[in-house]
Sequence to fold (730 residues):
Amino acid sequence: MTETLQPVSFPLWGSRLIEASAGTGKTWTIAALYLRLVLGHGGEAGLGRPLVPAEILVMTFTRAATRELSDRIRARLLEAARCFRGEAVPAEGDSLLAELLAAYPPGTARTGAAWRLAMAAESMDDAAVHTIDAWCQRMLREHAFDSGSLFDEELAANDGAMLAEAARDYWRQQFYPLSAAALDLALAVCGGVDALARAAQPLVDHELPAGAGAGSLGELIDGLCAERAATLAGLKQGWAERAREMQDWLDSQYDGPSCPFEKRRLTKKNYTAWLAALADWAGDPQAESPDMKTGTTRLTPAGLQEVIRPGGSVALPPHFEAFAHLTRALAAMPSLAPALRLHAAACIQRRLAELKQQAGTFGFADLLRRLDQALDAAHNGANAERLRQRILAQTPVALIDEFQDTSPLQARIFERLYRIADNARDTALLLIGDPKQSIYGFRGADIHSYLDARRATAGRHYVLGTNHRSTQALVAAVNQVFERAEARPGEGAFMFRASMRDEPADDPLPFVPVAARGREESFVTADGPAAAVTLVLDSELQDSATHLRLFAQSCAERIVTLLNDAGAGFRHSTLSLQRLRPADIAVLVRSARQAAAVRQALRRRGVASVYLSDKDSVFRSAEARDLLRLLQAVASPLDARLAHAALATRTLGLSLAELEQLADDDEAFDVRSEQLRQLHAVWQCCPYDRHPLLNTLDSRVGVRADPFKYDTGDDFTYYEWLLISISNRD
Fold:
């Protein structure tokens, strides 16, 4: 059962899950609950006493979000303090603040409440509003004795050099002793030591299965090869004879008076070759899998059903069903590649931890792992419970924002601390998120952590029920889309439901529709109000490139039509029509390839656009190419060709007249060259080695062929990054 959250009466104790869809006032709600916690409001629904900001942990995903959230909470506290002092009245529609004022009658109660609010606002600089990395670092530092952390360790944001060293150590320890046959198998999987380090890098920061990396690599390879050989030997038994029987049966059907199969789609030549390959595989002890190509699917019952003549039928011998089981068994055989990579990642992870301990450094992933281990009684003994009690005494209340993007390790830390299923009366854990916005799986986020928390908080689920951002028509359209998906038997809107039948409560992740407050303005065109959602389909089946081009052109054409429509814009009840501008339009795509197609279609129609993506590499920007040319000139200031290339970059911004003068006037060029020589001297004296930076840029930017070639790319700049890069070496 999911309740609509009422901010003034929401229980501020125990563990509770709050689903906050986009635009439903999540930040406002967090600030409102924070206000009540500071006041100690709620009676039986409250925690029992007022809290100070340092006792309320607010955790969100990014540093920018923590700053915004902290500012919003401070502003809300100041606003409430002014109202409680009688200097202002609650804004129209602010029922929360009005009810809180009514709960504290004028006199001592209201004066004390005003003082607590003002003090909380003044102490927000010390408030516990953190990202999880920052909070873990703070807990390990402040509770060093109980967590077993060292006092003089240094946070290293980039441990690439240590990872490479750990990979080389693994290579020497595990690859050198291998036999020739085992070495060939290992090299076929990982290539070389550098490739091994790249393959291990995404894994070493995550929790790996218990027992991973046990034993030597040689023992692992020998064991897997023996297991595969035994499995193959068992699977091959009897298949030489079955292949002949399948051949005889197909021949009898094919050559009979009424062949049930379409001979164009199942030729005798093909199935004879497939079955010969199956028999050869069964008779060869060394063969891994039969070389049957498309026969692995065609000779299954499902594959043969596809080539039966319309209206025909045939009873297949059991050999074909057995062949389908065989193909599945071969696909499920133990594979060397995943096991080898897991072994390497686990060993490299352990070696990396040893290197960090020796150097007195740690990384961001280590923060979570260390705090998790410190709270684990099996790892930290009696200190684990003592650490838990001290952290709970320090922050008895935690509001975890964007909980849908929590990793299993992060979720386990909160579970160890607050014990979600216990629903304790003297602490509060409020988990706030939206499963529809779980998008950070590539960073370790796991929606199943959200589902586990949802099960642990059964009966304590709340939803923010009103969208304050979008129009009523758009919210209704979105609700209808999800509700139709929710009604699908056996799946549900998010496809987590095992079976629907008559029990929708079986859905571990149901869709909860929201209402809409609506907006005062509406989008209209010359033809009248615009539809909230329009679906465009292409009924003609074509290749992906053609579809991409056609839909990009359709999108661009629609945008141009709207921009050229004098009646397209936003109509307000009291204001005149505000014409639609290009900046009002956003195009959402799934890949950079789709973005490029849309931008090209817009460019052909004279519409400028900007591509914004957190997947774009800074090394692919025009500024990165300019920086490479500049650093190459600083590294070799006597090379006139490199100097001219650097001075001609758009980043330096010299005019054409200046560039012409530098080309013709040797004295002017010497002045600029002297500047490069001075920068070269400064760089030589700085503590940074210039070669890694130049090598990185040189390999990833890729402008070595012609330093004078100037790429007039799009104006999507990274000037802040450039200034930081240069100033760090100044």
In short: The longest strand covers residues 14-19.
